[in-house]
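Quick board copy: two proteins, each given as sequence then tokens.
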Amino acid sequence: MSWLKSMMDKEPPEPENPIGIVVIGNLDPDVHEASSEQVRKALKRAQFKVVKLGKKVPAEVFASKAKEVNADIIAVSVNTTPAKDNLPKLLPAIESTGLKNRVGLMIGGAAVQSEDAEKIGAIYGKTKEEAVAIAKKILEEKKAK
């Protein structure tokens, strides 16, 4: 089992032909990166280019980085109540950069549920596998437009 664990912990290679670009990080003031790291690696294995922002990321930084790298998706990890309190800042930040309806928004983490996602027009996922499925669905919907 230790061999399998070491393979899962290993950093996936950068995709040669990424299917989309995801900006990922922990919403300010969240510092718990374990779950967002698992999601980041899963997205990378699924052939997404993933731009990691890290922890304690303000809503405005998610939006500006997404615009800078022409991201398809913003993935936000929310593991604490103070970070959850900052969720309402995401939508205005995305709107102020002109990305509304151009970038998909997905959230997950210990402090949020699907109702929190609905309030800000995001899609909620519980696991890294759900995150990959959601990201692929967002891409399909973007291409259908």
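And the next:
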Amino acid sequence: MDRFTVPTKWWHRIDDGRIQCDVCPRACKLHHGQRGLCFVRRRHDDMIVLDTYGRSSGFCVDPIEKKPLNHFLPGTPILSLGTAGCNLACRFCQNWDISKSKEMATLADEAMPDQIAAAAEQLGCRSVALTYNDPTIFLEYAIDIGEACRRHGIRTVAVTAGYIEPGPLAEMASVLDAANVDLKAFTDDFYHRVCGGALRPVLDTIEYLVHETDVWVELTTLLIPGLNDSDTELHNMTTWVVDRLGPDVPMHFTAFHPDFRLLDRPATAPCTLTRARGIAIGNGVHHAYTGNVHDPDGQSTRCSSCGKIVIGRRGYTLGRWDLDGTGNCNHCGARLAGVIDGPPGNWGARRRPVRLSTTTDSRGRT
């Protein structure tokens, strides 16, 4: 094994001689030398190893609103990274060149956890995002990054599809401060036919994060014309959110564009996002947003008590700010749900790629 390959613990042997990976509900059962569907976890001798520890498809400083997170340190920059591979098979994947990669050449940069945390601090980022592809599949690397960030006073964010088993989820959640969970649809049929997965594990993940942890959670649904954008499905989804999670969990409805293996659908019309947002608000969701379109009203944050705009946005850029330093509305004094810590950031819509190459070994030793 090279320095980027590390042993993992979430697996067990089964009677026919294979080893089952227990990180996600896919439960890949592997013979010697086989890889899971995610590609980055494989059987080596009598264990499952991760091949992408310390390796990244790239690092970039983004606005935190791009994750998207509208109620977690608004306006601040976040150091983002991903690896390669994915444990779902979404036909519409918007990051397919990373998440569907079967080539380690995609991993053009490298950095160990302490270096990532130190770089975030040096770059003025208050948080690090595990994103671009799902941190579930690089679980060990993700957890070590989260622990390193804690030591440096940096927050950790996961952008995830939530397709993960309870044990690994609890371990990862212990180092997270926020998560955006991709609730891709609200039917098992969509998850089965379009994503190669199932809905129930995702709902379980979301409920666990909201009710059993201190992780701040926001949800995102990419609306695809004719597949997951009906009034009935949106009603069922948003009703579930209010009933099972509470009205303060923000929801983001974002626009699809044809990509990867789903090229026969048109791009999402802005009116579809507005309709979805209206259904969500009508069902009691306090904070519903539109994304991937120009819609300042649909991207601004209103006080759930008085209805006044307290954070004005144009895309990823903040404008109006009517909150005090602890997140209370300047109009009525009501508390805004989320993590508001001091004055707003002013990073705006900038995107700054960075290189973090290192020569440390697989556990961060020089």
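Board note added afterward: The first helix runs from residue 96 to 99.
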